[in-house]
C-alpha cells in the first residue's frame, strides 16, 4: 500500500473525513503505528532491517561519528575489522547480539575496544593508523512521504517543497540526514512511474534529497503540472501493510468509539481467531526456521 492508500484506509475504518480529523492528525497516527510495528518486527527478528556502516580510522583519532539513523537505544555491533576479517557472524549469533531489548554495543572485532559517547563512538586504545571497521545496527527509519518531486537527477529526487496538503502531498519530510536510508521509494505517476529503488542516501535540511541505488529508467520531470510523483513506502513487509492503518485507527477511535471494538478485534484477534498482529508474528517466526532439508535429484528424462 502507498501512504496515500493508508490514509484513505484509515478514514474508511473510522468513517471520517478531513473535516472531522485533520490530515496532520491522521498522518501522525499512521507514523506512530508504522514505528510501533517496526519495533514489533525488530523484537521478533532483529536481522530483518539490519543495516551496515563502514568507517576508516585515522591515526591518533579516537572519536568517530555513527550513522545518523543508528538507533542509540538498541544494540550496535562492531563485527569486523575488514583488514583481517571478511565474514559476518552466523545469522543466529547476529540475531542474538542485535536483540532489541539489549541496548549498548557488542565488540567482535579483532583489535579494538569501543564505548558509546553520545551519538559518537570512542575507540579505546587510540588507533595508530588506518583501519576499516564495519558495524551492524538497527536503523531508525524516517516517516512515510508521498507527493510530487521538486527536482531530480538521474539517481536522485527532491521531496516536494512547502507544507503537505493531503491531496497531492502527504507527510512532513524528516530533516535529519540518513533517516530514509534503506527505505524503498516508488514512482507512482508520470515519467518513470513504476520504478522502485532502495534509498542509499538522504540529505535532510533544506535539500530533502534522496539518492537511490541505481538510475531511474527514464528522465524524471519536475515541470509544473506533469511532475513525477513518488512515495516513500513503509519498511513493514508489503503483505502486512494493512496493519498500519488498522493500528492507527485504534488510536484514532478516541474520536469515534463506535468502531473501536471491531477494529481491535481485527488487529488483535478474538477468542479462537488470531488477529493480523499475530499473523505477522507467526510469519516472522517461520521465516527464521531453517531445518535440515534433503534435496532429491529428479530425472525428468531430458
What's the pLDDT, averaged over the residues? 87
Number of helices: 6
- The share of residues in helices is 10-25%
Strand fraction band?
Answer: 15-25%
The CA-CA distance between the termini, in Å, is 43 Å
In the sheet with the most strands, the strands line up as 8-14-11-12-13-10-9
Low-confidence stretches at least 5 residues in length (pLDDT < 50)? none
Major β-sheet annotation:
7 strands, antiparallel
Could you say which overall geometry the principal axes of the C-alpha atoms support?
globular
Helix-strand category: alpha+beta
Please describe what this structure looks like:
- There is one protein chain.
- With 302 residues, this protein is α+β, with helices and mostly antiparallel strands.
- Helix content is 24%, strand content 24%.
- It has helices at residues 3-14, 23-44, 91-97, 243-252, 260-268, 276-288; strands at residues 51-56, 63-65, 75-81, 104-107, 113-117, 120-124, 132-137, 145-148, 151-153, 156-158, 184-189, 196-203, 209-212, 229-232, 269-270, 273-274.
- The strands form four sheets. It has a seven-stranded antiparallel β-sheet with strand order 8-14-11-12-13-10-9, with no helix packed on it. Strands 1-7-3-4 form a four-stranded mixed β-sheet, with no helix packed on it.
- α3 (91-97) links the parallel β3 (75-81) and β4.
- α1 crosses α4 and α2 packs across α4.
- The radius of gyration is 22 Å and the shape is globular.
- The mean pLDDT is 87.
Amino acid at each position: 500500500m502507498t501512504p496515500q492508500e493508508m490514509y484513505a484506509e484509515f478514514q474508511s475504518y473510522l468513517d471520517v473525513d478531513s473535516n472531522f480529523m485533520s490530515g496532520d492528525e491522521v498522518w501522525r497516527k499512521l507514523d506512530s503505528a508504522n514505528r510501533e510495528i517496526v519495533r514489533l518486527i525488530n523484537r521478533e527478528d532483529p536481522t530483518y532491517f539490519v543495516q551496515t556502516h563502514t568507517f576508516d580510522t585515522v591515526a591518533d583519532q579516537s572519536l568517530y561519528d555513527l550513522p545518523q539513523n543508528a538507533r542509540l537505544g538498541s544494540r550496535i555491533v562492531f563485527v569486523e575489522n575488514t583488514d583481517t576479517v571478511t565474514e559476518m557472524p552466523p545469522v543466529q549469533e547476529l540475531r542474538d547480539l542485535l536483540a532489541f531489548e539489549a541496548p549498548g554495543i557488542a565488540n567482535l572485532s579483532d583489535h579494538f575496544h569501543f564505548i558509546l559517547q553520545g551519538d559518537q563512538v570512542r575507540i579505546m586504545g587510540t588507533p595508530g593508523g588506518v583501519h576499516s571497521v564495519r558495524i551492524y545496527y538497527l536503523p531508525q527509519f524516517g516517516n512515510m512521504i508521498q507527493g510530487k518531486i521538486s527536482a531530480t537527477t538521474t539517481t536522485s529526487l527532491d521531496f516536494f517543497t512547502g507544507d503537505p496538503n493531503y491531496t497531492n502531498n502527504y507527510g512532513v519530510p524528516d530533516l535529519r540526514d540518513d533517516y530514509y536510508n534503506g527505505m524503498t521509494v516508488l514512482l507512482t505517476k508520470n515519467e518513470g512511474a513504476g520504478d522502485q529503488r532502495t534509498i542509499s542516501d538522504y540529505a535532510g535540511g533544506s535539500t530533502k534529497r534522496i539518492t537511490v541505488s541505481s538510475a531511474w529508467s527514464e528522465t524524471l520531470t519536475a515541470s509544473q503540472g506533469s511532475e513525477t510523483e513518488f512515495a516513500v513506502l513503509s519498511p513493514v513487509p508489503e503483505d502486512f501493510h494493512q496493519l498500519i492503518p488498522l493500528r492507527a485507527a485504534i488510536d484514532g477511535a478516541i474520536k469515534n468509539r463506535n468502531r473501536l471494538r471491531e477494529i481491535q478485534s481485527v488487529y488483535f484477534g478474538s477468542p479462537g481467531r488470531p488477529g493480523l498482529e499475530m499473523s505477522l508474528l507467526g510469519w516472522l517466526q517461520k521465516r527464521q526456521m531453517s531445518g535440515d532439508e534433503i534435496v532429491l535429484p529428479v530425472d525428468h528424462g531430458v
